[in-house]
Amino acid sequence: MKSQDVRKQFLDFFESKGHTIVPSAPIVLKDDPTLMFNNSGMAQFKEFFLGNGTPKSPRIADTQKCLRVSGKHNDLEEVGIDTYHHTMFEMLGNWSFGDYFKKEAINWAWELLTEVYKIPKENLYVSVFEGSKEDNVPFDQEAWDIWKTLIDEDRIILGNKKDNFWEMGDQGPCGPCSEIHVDLRSAEEKALKPGKEEVNNDHPQVVEIWNNVFMEFNRKADGSLEKLPAQHVDTGMGFERLCMALQGKTSNYDTDVFMPLIREIETITGAKYTTNDVTGISEEQNKMNIAIRVVADHVRAVAFAIADGQLPSNTGAGYVIRRILRRAIRYGFTFLGTKEPFIFKLVETLSEQMGDSFPEIRTQKALCSNVIREEENSFLKTLDQGLILLDAVILNNNGDTVDGKKAFELYDTYGFPIDLTALILSERGLKLDEEGFQEQLQLQKERSRAASKVTAGDWNVLVEDDVQEFIGYDRLSHQVKITKYRRVESAKDGEIFQLVFNATPFYGESGGQTGDKGYLEAQNGDIVYIIDTKKENNQTIHLAKSLPENLTGTFNAVVDANQRAKTSSNHSATHLLHQGLRKILGTHIEQKGSMVRNASLRFDFSHFSKVTDEELVEVENFVNARIRESLPLIEKRGIPKEQALEEGAIALFGEKYGDLVRMIKFGDSVELCGGTHVANTSDIWHFKIISEGAVAAGIRRIEAITSEAAKEYFESQAVSLNEIKEALKNAQDPVKSILALQDENAQLKKQLEALLKDKAKNMKADLAKELQEINGVQFLAKQVDLNPEGAKDLAYELGGSYNNLFVVFATAHEGKPMLTCYISKEIVAAKNLNAGQVVRELGKYIQGGGGGQPFFATAGGKNVDGIGEALAKAVDFVK
């Protein structure tokens, strides 16, 4: 059965059971501060389990793109080593929100697996929760009784809290679960050992394929459990593992989910992959297989993350994506011999394979390819740089073991993979101090955990209120009641209180717009300041440093009107900027991210080249023309998404929209948007672009300002212009005067260079007298009164007269030390000398480093006082 049919039959089956089929949410989570990525099928439904929203249907089914590489679910280092772990995977799921429970969930799971997919019953095992005295939760007798009507009791396994009690996190909804495992071993293996004994023991052919979670409890901050007001079903079936079972394979990678990618990797690299049924393969072939599996898995995760809006970067979710891609690159580099970018070429195959089910990978194909290729180029250069640095470590190493701290520095500072370090060291006959490396890695992890640790108390409910109303589009103040609050503590922010109101005028950070600030005023005049506002699980949370005295009172919630006006101005300008870019650069422009604050706006968009100065002026003029037109805001709230799209609204990629949406229109600019906006474009006053540049391959970024910030900018520019005029003695045409000064400066530089060249030639004769012959080499190490370029000229001048020259010149031009080493090509090989190694070693004395070619290299540093010692040590290379 083809994977496309597996997916379709699952969705068709649950549709026949009254479930509404919904699309996968983006793999990247933008408005959930507790998660970077969708790591399970239930993540997009958290608000319903928490009681903060109502689903469109009490029964839902879908296939969800998931990504697990960090936090509680960290499988990254196992991916590719085994045959059933992945970074990105699909989770087939069916959900009940207070509707059906254990009986229906279990019976339907069994019906689908055995009657629709026709998996032999004798290959299946199930587990139920054995109970927990610690949590005072009894053995799941109900699930056991249901299962024993479907399967022999000797195939029902009791599972402990670790395996059969599912929790969203340290706090929140949770409950016992019932797993279904499939035994894919050969008949001979089954005869030797029952599958029951291999369940949950990491056997690659006895794997869990489906988990039915029965959510009936809420985990409180103190660890205790309380019953939820409604019982829910949350199930997840691993699509890749299911395909393995239905296609008669013993590895996920041998299914048609991965084989098209694997065959393309073989074509590109010339490497060969052996499927899991081939035995007796060599160690070299096994490493090649692992590398191919790593690349095939990782390109899926990276491409889908980029398609959903997450570009690789050095922080947060972007760093996770960069880390996954770099792992794939280094496996290709080390085991497949790929020294040039190649992973980006796989996006085409991925698009063909999965584009029907996940159209975003098709529409964003060019972006994914460009970004991955750029990342590959960058990291391959990092690997080259790392090899040079590792050479220096090896050169300076004493003994047969390289210090783990030095290896960690290469890994942490330069991104050089530790396994590649270990491989190169072994090839050089050296060992890696792995214990020292792991020690440093653990210290870093502990520092990171300490910095990001957040301790949250339970919500203290004051008023039962299922629906929190947002009235911030129309009002900036409102009489509110606090419905619940909790205390949160973190290393970063200290003690913070989170407050939820029955209604709020405060906009919670989402959609790229920062949250409102303001205050809460009690009836007695006491004030609590709201320092930020967030959105989490469909509720607006207000952050404060303290609590009101009387929590049950009525308060006047007041938004900072000045900051809101500035933020709204920037948000509306973002829409006009988007429109202008599409009109001037072309309709291929797509928004790829934005940040709207009260001080400025940032807009990322897809474009194939740098935006010229002339184009930027056109865009700026376009936006300011719309501002001068005084276009009124036309807003439509709660309209069907299809209607909004028919009316020309632009839906942003990677965003999760409901069935009902809000449409914002200024003239011909029409977008779906939940943010705050000005009532009229004239309120923006003026739009000014501050910068334009590249974020990644095919992604550009514009930063701009409006309203008061634009006014302050122009005032600052006027002050600067006056200062320039004064410096130019009030020249009538300051631009013309500056150009004249630049021309004069250029001429003086040329004259200076000519004088320095003459000085170097004149010095040549004097320095030739100072050369010492040491072991057949004409040697000189000396500080010279030249700039670095003059030292280079001097070295080459001397080099032209000798074929056995070794010189090291030091300069301290403008207080910056520089070492220049020249070695005659004739003695580079004969004496095994290398100018690059010389300057790297001597550079330590001036607290710097450098490199170059074997016959010529330079090193810069910070410590001028170290020049003398560096020159004194130079002679050691020719003795």
From TrEMBL:
Gene3D superfamilies: 2.40.30.130, 3.10.310.40, 3.30.54.20, Bira Bifunctional Protein, Domain 2, Threonyl-trna Synthetase, Chain A, domain 2
Protein name: Alanine--tRNA ligase
Chain positions recorded as Zn(2+) binding sites: H571, H575, C673, H677
Keyword terms of this UniProt record: Aminoacyl-tRNA synthetase, ATP-binding, Coiled coil, Cytoplasm, Ligase, Metal-binding, Nucleotide-binding, Protein biosynthesis, RNA-binding, tRNA-binding, Zinc
Cell compartments where the protein resides: Cytoplasm
Family: Belongs to the class-II aminoacyl-tRNA synthetase family.
Any one GO MF annotation of this record: aminoacyl-tRNA deacylase activity
An annotated GO BP: alanyl-tRNA aminoacylation
Domain Alanyl-transfer RNA synthetases family profile as annotated: residue spans: 1-716
Description of its domains: Consists of three domains; the N-terminal catalytic domain, the editing domain and the C-terminal C-Ala domain. The editing domain removes incorrectly charged amino acids, while the C-Ala domain, along with tRNA(Ala), serves as a bridge to cooperatively bring together the editing and aminoacylation centers thus stimulating deacylation of misacylated tRNAs.
Glycoprotein as UniProt keyword: no
Cofactor note: Binds 1 zinc ion per subunit.
Reactions accelerated catalytically: tRNA(Ala) + L-alanine + ATP = L-alanyl-tRNA(Ala) + AMP + diphosphate
Source organism: Flavobacterium phragmitis
GO cellular component terms listed in the entry, alphabetical order: cytoplasm
EC number assigned by the record: 6.1.1.7
HAMAP family xref list: Ala_tRNA_synth_B
Functional note: Catalyzes the attachment of alanine to tRNA(Ala) in a two-step reaction: alanine is first activated by ATP to form Ala-AMP and then transferred to the acceptor end of tRNA(Ala). Also edits incorrectly charged Ser-tRNA(Ala) and Gly-tRNA(Ala) via its editing domain.
Gene from which the chain derives: alaS
UniProt keyword annotation of Metal-binding present: yes
Residue runs in coiled coils: 738-777
Cofactor needs: Zn(2+)
